[in-house]
Every structure is written in structure tokens, then in C-alpha cells.
Specification:
By secondary structure, the protein is an alpha+beta fold. It contains eleven helices and 50 strands. Among the domains are: 241 residues, TIM Barrel; 95 residues, Immunoglobulin-like, CATH 2.60.40.1180. Strands 4-5-6-7-21-18-17-15 form an eight-stranded antiparallel sheet. The longest helix is centred in the middle third of the chain and has 24 residues.
């Protein structure tokens, strides 16, 4: 939201009150309270007839500082509030110093300094300037309609880049953009977001979390190009600065504060297939899909029933449409016997035609208007109401309806919608059961909705076995994965916009992400489908889904079946690596799919990259976004950072620190392994959930730049090592000796190294390197590096 016309002039509809002075500082053991009047105080008379901003500075976690700005403190403060996972109070690590002219508060490596007479807040990390508020950086703006806004800003440095704000489909680097955290259902081809997160990540290794669940308006170098400005329509605004030595550390600390993703079941990483949305289907149709995948040897793990498993006009009644599915329990049992998991679509709305509407209305489980009547509208379902999850009884009632489905054989839920929640902003005046502020509940509703469903799944299935497919989210929503990218179109440009939105979500504390392979709206070409399959199977979670047409590969062509089989097999074989990444995400908050700038902060070429990403720290993926109308291989341009890179599929080696254009058919794409990486490959290609320790082999991609010990791990669900391999390089008599130490005797495939001799190990030549078969857990290999 913009409040000015240029540098000097405030818009006429606003009365601007800028903090102009630091009049008084009050220091306590772990807080600073600053009093900032709206004019410079030169004498006693200046203290009359003037407002003042109260600024409270504290810390709730190491390397974080909280700043709370308050205009009028006596205003009614309605919930909800974000849940914080960390509490740093009274830990003894906050230091406060103060004298008559200046004050400082420090938490770990982060400090905030103020000087008497100046309204500027200056942040430092490890002794270096980080950001500051500026001369007119704190204000209370009063609109002519009576609404007040608390506004502040944090300066941008030369070349500083801003990422995040949730899943945003607009340009990846957010400098120059206006971003409002207000969840809406707008598809992927708009600036509207399903997942609005009031958090941004700076390339200077700090993050800013605005601790306000309502609409936060960010001017990211767009009103004042020298700063990020953010404002709320409220009398109070709190933000938390989070510092890290690198950007991954910032994300780790942010997720420690707001919550980290739980461990997900291994089966969830396999291929999901859906009925699609408005297509016609019954059990015969579904069986033909499952049979068709099996006949073509395409591994399928999860089958999803979209909306019309229930009767139209009755969403949600949580009852199978008996005209189409006369015996659902028996059907689900047959699917389970084929090794499939079952997912069904739900939303938090109760249509007026649903038998549950009268029950929920009578018991007070639906959101009400201020006059006590039930809030209803016709958008999506006729006369639908909204489950009020602030009512504990409604929360339990909703879970009870879902539990009946779990008891029948359903394994997980797709929690669709949760964005279009009524508030005064869209001209509805509603009353939540617990008295929550409607403006704050608009975004926060999705948190309660997905928490309700996820907690039920954890209770019924056990921790590590719960998963849902969610569309909407707010801060903290990463605790209820997985989230998918919403309604994309079936075009290459939509595939690209989906990826950059997913990368923005990863920059916002989310660890897992998926998207509709093939596109949701319309029906794309076979060319698009095959390219999207490669992208989808190299994402953390992989689902075939559409709107008005099926997404089984044979509706495109025979080759699409082969492509889908190839990349599903590839993902299954990568599961020891991917699952270890998932465990690490659960423990640290570092996402499975990573923007390039997270892994290569010092490489400025990576700062803007939004058409490629890292799958973990070792595998680079650059999906093909170039059409090939004749089905022939197409050139693709991508960037490889410094070092030697090995193509995962072909074994071809490339030197990095350059842009490369190469040609790829449908069974390939730019997917490279970073030098000196150890990747565990599974021997199982037909399912994602197998014994990774027993059914895998180590692949070592080594280069002459190897210096420090290299380690590969396969992690168990609790983060402990199931299996590990460590390699050190030793130089002796003009020969290179690699010293291996393994926790078990798994086979090792050595890429990029010419083996000449071994100790306590056997070796054979393979197509892309050497295969080592160790006889002891410690052994030596001598030889030389293969140089391109």
C-alpha cells in the first residue's frame, strides 16, 4: 500500500504522523522500550498535543530481534495469532546496554542500536551494518475514513535482493513489486496467491517475519526504491529480524520459530494419479486407469478421488455417491490389495443441499454473520456455509466425519480451498465463535483447517505416516505438508510460472512442494506432458492431475507412457537420497527443492535463476520449457556453477561456471550431479518405499578438486544413519589414493576416477566408471582423476 506521491508529498487522503524523535529509552533485563513522538521535542511545550509511537524491542530466539510498534495501545486486540515453536525468553542470551545517549539490545550475533534524539533503528550482525529504518521509517498513517495504519520500512543495500512472501507466481526476485499477504483463489497466471506468507529473505543473510496474520502490504523497493516498506491496518505491528551466517541458516531459524515440516511416509514420494476434476468416472473407469498403468509397467503408489466422489451440490457431505460407487469399502479394499494408497478430495465448506448442513447449523458449527444468521454464498456450492474451526466442537465434529472415511480405508486427504474466507475486506461482517478478528482470520483460517485434518491423520495413522495435499497456507503451514501449486494452465509458460512460485515457497520456510503434472486447465500437447513429467518426477512430490480431461499417459501417445515409466523408475531409484533430504528438512527446515541462490550464494549468476533448482545439495535440475512441435530433441540453455558436473542419466561430464546449451529428447533433461557428491541409488525402481540400506548402492562423483573428506548418508526417520560412506584423498608417490570407510559393504560406483589398484576391494569397469565391491569396511583405491 502506497501512502506517498514521491519523496516529499503524502497522499491527500492520509494524515501522516512520522516518528521524529527518540525522546526516552527504558531498559529492562531483556527488553528496550523506546518512546518516539511525532515531532522533535525541543522544550516542554512540545510534549503537548502530539502523538507518540511506542517501540518495544526484545528477542524470543537467538539471532533474532523483535520490534513491536504501537500507536494506540488501548485498542481491542482480537485473535488469532501465529503459533511460535520457540521461546527464547529468560535464556540469558539477550544483552541490553543503555546510557543517557544511546542503547543497544543484542541476541547472539544480531544487534539493534538506537541513539537519543534519532528515530532510526539500526541493525548490525557480527559488527557489520545489516539494515535500518531510516529518517521517516516509522509512522502512523490515518486515512480520512478513520482507519489507522502502522507503517515501517527497512533499508535495502546496493544489489540486495529480496525473495519469498510465499508462493508467488510473479517474477522470482521481488524487488520492485507490491505484495499483499491476502490469500485468494486466482490460479497460477495471476499475482494472487493461495499461500501468502509475511516473511521475506534477503540476499544479505537475514529474514524478516511480520508477525501479523492479517493483510500485510509490502512495498518491496516499489514505493521507496531504497527500502522494503510494510504496513498493516491496525494499531500494532510486530516484526522479527532473523540473522544467519548464510541464507539456509536463516530459513532454519525461521522454521525453528514457526515450526518445521513433519516426517512424511516414504510411499508419499511415489507417483500419484487422480480421476481429474470434472471428468466422468466410476469404479470401472478407475480400474481401467490402474490396470492401464500396471499393464504398461508404470509404478503407481497413490490413487486420488477428486470432488465427484461425492454427489454434486453436496460438497461436502463426506458420503460416497452410491450411484457411482455402490460399495466403496469393497472398492478401497481391492485397491489396497493392489498396493495402492487412497486419497480423497475435501474442502471446509458445507453446501446447503448436504445432509450435514442442517446438523452443523443447528449445533452452531458454521460461521455466522454478526446478526446471528449463518453466513452463506453460492460461489462454488449453492448456499454453502463455512465450518468454524474456532469452535472446538466444530473442530471435533469435522474430524469425526473424516475418521469415518479413514476407517473405511482412505489413507489421506486433499485439503482443497480455504482461501476465500469472508471479511470486511470483501464486504462481509462475520462473527467467529471465539471472537477472532475477521481480517486476521481470513489468512489464518487455512492454518486451522489443515491443522485439524493433519492432526487427525497423525492420531489415526501415526507420526511419520500422515500427509495431505493442501492448496492454501499461511505462516506455519509448512507443518502440514504437502502443498501443491494450484490451478495451472496446460502451457509451457505455466510450467515455468509454477516452478518460480514453488521456489518462492521454498524461500518462505516450506520443505515440500508439488504441482499438477500436465497442467490443470484444458488439455496440453503430448510434447508438454512429457516435459512436465520429467519436471514432476524430479520434484519432492509427483501428481498427475487435470480438470476436464484425464492425465493417464496413453491419452497422449505411446511414448508418453514410456517417458512416465522412465522418470517414475528414476525417482524410485533416487529414493534413498530423496528420503534422506526429507528427513533433513524435518530436522533443519532446509527444503528438499532448493533455489539456486540457497546453495550458491557467492555465485551472482544464481541470484536470479528461476528455471532451474537444486534437488538437495547435490543434484541440479533444469526442466525443459521449450516446445518441440515435431517431437524432436530441443536445445535447452542452463547454468552450471563452478566445478565439474556429471549428467545423471548419460554420465557425460561438463565443467561449470558457465552457461551451456545442449539438446535433450523426452527421456532426458539437464539433470546434473555436483562434483564430490555421494548419491545413494536404490536398486528398486517400481516403488518408493523399500529397504534403502539393503537395496541401494553408493555412487561417488569425484573430481581432482576433492580435498576435505566427502560423506554420503542414508538417514533413518529419526535422523540416525542407516548407512554411510566417507572418502578421503591421499597423495603418495605421484599416485592418488582414495581411502574409503563404509558402515556396511554396499557396492560403490565410482565416476570420474580411473582405478588402477585396490586394497581389500574388487573392481570392474562399467559404462560410466568403475564398480567397487568392498571386502572390508575400510579399503583403499589408487588411480587418477578423469579430466575432460
Amino acid at each position: 500500500m502506497k501512502f506517498t506521491n514521491g519523496f516529499w508529498v503524502t497522499k491527500p487522503e492520509y494524515n501522516a504522523n512520522y516518528a521524529r524523535d527518540l525522546y526516552e529509552i527504558k531498559a529492562a533485563e531483556d527488553t528496550l522500550t523506546l518512546y518516539m513522538p511525532y515531532k522533535k521535542i525541543e522544550g516542554r511545550g512540545d510534549t503537548l498535543n502530539i502523538g507518540m509511537m511506542t517501540v518495544e524491542c526484545s528477542s524470543i530466539m537467538e539471532d533474532t530481534l523483535s520490534v513491536k510498534l504501537t500507536g494506540y495501545a488501548g485498542q481491542k486486540k482480537g485473535g488469532p495469532a501465529f503459533e511460535k515453536a520457540a521461546d527464547f525468553k529468560k535464556s540469558g542470551k539477550v544483552q541490553v546496554s543503555c546510557d543517557s545517549q544511546k542503547a543497544e539490545i543484542s541476541s547472539g550475533l544480531l544487534s539493534l542500536c538506537v541513539e537519543k534524539g534519532s528515530p532510526e533503528l539500526k541493525f548490525f550482525a557480527e559488527g557489520k551494518a545489516l539494515t535500518k529504518t531510516g529518517n521517516k521509517g516509522i509512522s502512523r498513517m490515518k486515512h480520512r475514513d478513520g482507519n489507522a495504519y502502522i507503517v515501517t520500512e527497512l533499508s535495502l543495500d546496493v544489489g540486495e535482493l529480496i525473495y519469498g512472501f510465499g508462493e508467488r507466481f510473479t517474477p522470482y526476485v521481488k524487488n520492485g513489486q507490491v505484495v499483499e499477504t491476502w490469500n485468494e483463489d486466482g490460479g497460477t497466471a495471476s499475482e494472487i496467491a493461495y499461500k501468502s506468507i509475511p516473511f521475506y529473505l534477503s540476499s544479505k543473510n537475514y529474514g524478516v517475519f511480520v508477525n501479523h496474520p492479517g493483510k500485510v502490504s509490502f512495498e518491496t523497493g516499489s514505493e521507496k526504491v531504497e527500502s522494503v516498506q510494510f504496513s498493516v491496518q491496525d494499531e500494532e505491528l510486530e516484526y522479527i529480524i532473523i540473522y544467519g551466517r548464510n541464507q539456509k541458516e536463516v530459513l532454519s531459524k525461521y522454521t525453528k520459530l514457526t515450526g518445521r515440516a513433519p516426517l512424511l511416509p516414504k510411499w508419499s514420494f511415489g507417483l500419484w494419479l487422480t480421476t481429474s476434476f470434472t471428468t466422468d468416472y466410476d469404479e470401472k473407469t478407475i480400474t481401467s486407469f490402474i490396470d492401464g498403468m500396471a499393464d504398461r509397467n508404470i509404478p503407481l503408489t497413490v490413487f486420488h478421488f477428486d470432488c465427484f466422489w461425492m454427489k454434486g451440490f453436496e460438497w461436502c457431505n463426506f458420503e460416497w455417491d452410491k450411484d457411482v460407487f455402490p460399495n466403496p469399502a469393497a472398492m478401497l479394499e481391492r485397491m489396497h490389495k493392489r498396493g495402492l494408497k487412497i486419497c480423497v478430495w475435501i474442502n471446509p465448506y458445507i453446501a446447503q443441499k448436504s445432509p450435514l448442513f442442517a446438523e452443523a447449523a443447528e449445533k452452531g458449527y458454521l460461521l455466522r454473520n454478526k446478526d446471528g444468521s449463518i453466513w452463506q454464498w453460492d460461489m462454488w456450492q449453492a448456499g454453502m456455509g463455512l465450518v468454524d474451526f474456532t469452535n472446538p466442537d466444530a473442530y471435533k465434529w469435522y474430524q469425526a466425519k473424516l475418521k469415518a472415511l479413514l476407517d473405511m480405508g482412505v489413507d489421506c486427504f486433499k485439503t482443497d480451498f480455504g482461501e476465500r474466507i469472508p471479511s470486511r475486506d470483501n464486504n462481509y461482517d462475520v462473527a467467529w465463535f471465539d471472537g477472532s478478528d475477521p481480517e486476521k482470520m481470513h489468512n489464518f483460517y487455512t492454518y486451522l483447517y489443515n491443522k485439524c485434518v493433519f492432526s487427525l491423520l497423525e492420531k489415526e495413522k501415526g507420526k511419520g505416516e500422515a500427509i495431505l495435499f493442501a492448496r492454501s497456507a499461511t505462516a506455519g503451514g509448512q507443518k502440514f505438508p504437502v502443498h501443491w501449486g494450484g490451478d495451472s494452465t496446460s502451457q509451457f509458460i505455466s510450467m515455468a510460472e509454477s516452478l518460480r512460485a514453488g521456489l518462492s515457497l521454498m524461500d518462505s520456510g516450506f520443505s515440500f512442494w508439488s504441482h499438477d503434472i500436465g497442467g490443470f486447465e484444458d488439455t496440453g500437447s503430448a510434447d508438454l506432458y512429457k516435459r512436465w513429467v520429467a519436471f514432476g518426477l524430479l520434484s519432492s512430490h509427483s501428481r498427475l492431475h487435470g480438470s476436464s480431461s484425464y492425465r493417464v499417459p496413453w491419452v497422449y501417445d505411446d511414448e508418453a507412457c514410456d517417458v512416465l515409466r522412465f522418470f517414475t523408475n528414476l525417482k524410485c531409484s533416487l529414493m534413498p537420497y530423496i528420503y534422506s533430504l526429507a528427513v533433513n528438512a524435518h530436522l533443519t527446515g532446509i527444503p528438499v527443492m532448493r533455489p539456486m541462490h540457497l546453495e550458491f550464494e557467492d555465485d551472482l549468476n544464481c541470484a536470479y535463476l528461476d528455471r532451474q533448482y537444486m534437488l538437495g545439495d547435490s543434484i541440479l535440475v533444469a526442466p525443459v520449457f521449450t516446445p518441440s512441435p515435431d517431437g524432436q530433441p530441443v536445445p535447452q540453455t542452463f547454468y552450471l556453477p563452478e566445478g565439474q558436473w556429471t549428467h545423471l542419466i548419460s554420465g557425460k561430464k561438463y565443467s561449470g561456471n558457465r552457461w551451456i546449451t545442449d539438446t535433450y529428447d523426452y527421456f532426458s533433461l539437464p539433470v546434473f550431479v555436483k562434483e564430490n557428491s555421494i548419491i545413494p541409488f536404490g536398486n528398486e525402481k517400481n516403488r518408493p518405499d523399500y529397504d534403502y540400506k539393503k537395496q541401494s548402492e553408493w555412487n561417488l562423483f569425484i573430481s581432482s578438486n576433492c580435498s576435505d573428506p566427502i560423506k554420503g548418508q542414508i538417514l533413518d526417520s529419526d535422523g540416525k544413519e542407516l548407512s554411510a560412506l566417507t572418502v578421503e584423498k591421499e597423495a603418495c608417490d605421484n599416485k592418488v589414493i582414495l581411502k574409503f570407510k563404509a558402515s556396511d559393504l554396499n557396492k560403490i560406483c565410482l565416476h570420474g576416477f580411473e582405478v588402477q589398484g585396490v586394497t581389500d576391494c574388487k573392481f570392474t569397469k562399467s559404462e560410466n566408471g568403475f564398480v567397487l565391491t568392498p571386502e572390508k569396511n575400510e579399503f583403499y583405491v589408487s588411480g587418477s582423476f578423469i579430466v575432460n
